[in-house]
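Bug: token stream looks shifted between consecutive jobs. Job 1:
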Amino acid sequence: QVQLVESGGGSVQAGGSLRLSCAVSGVTTITYCLGWFRQAPGKEREGVAGIGSDGDTWYADTVKGRFTISLGNGKNILELQMNSLKPEDTAMYYCAAVPYLRGPCGHSWYPEDVWGRGTQVTVSS
């Protein structure tokens, strides 16, 4: 059973940085897609970044060049380095996983996927 636990959220001023971590356990399949999405109050769920078992990464246009996704420790730690943060990045951030590849990995996440509980990121101007 896949389990995901996020950490690292917090409050920061615009232009600052945060690093989100997700402890990943139970991913036993050769193929997988891991990533992050965010949701702000009253807004749609938005895929932020993803990394697949094929090594490909994907980023939303809104974060490209500012955020970096990485997977380490034998796919047990999924991280999202967020630089040059903007107030519009304020949202609850969720780690998510599926035990197969679907493309682009990280673009879309659904309730039937495995999600963590989320970590809040607040960026003030």
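Job 2, same session, no restart:
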Amino acid sequence: QVQLVESGGGLVQPGGSLRLSCAASGRIFSIYVMGWYRQAPGKERELVGDITSGGSTNYADSVKGRFTISRDNAKNTVYLQMNSLKPEDTAVYYCAANVKYYTGSVTRTNDYWGQGTQVTVSS
């Protein structure tokens, strides 16, 4: 089994910053892509950004220049640094990862999701 556990959400004023973390645990062989998604009330889940094991990043246009994704491969952890937050960034933020894991003597690959963490930007 593989688990993703997020932390770091909360309430912040417009213009403020937050840092989210997501740690993967379990019988992990490797993780190629780790990313962050968000879902606001009444809206579909959308990609915020992702990062490969080699460090290549991809961001949604709405967060470019404000959010930064990084990862620590040794710790199987991905981070989301969010600066200049806006009320429209309010959402539940989910971590996702494409994980190759051990099952017996072989490996399999699957996508996993965290439980989500609430980010609220409000004065």
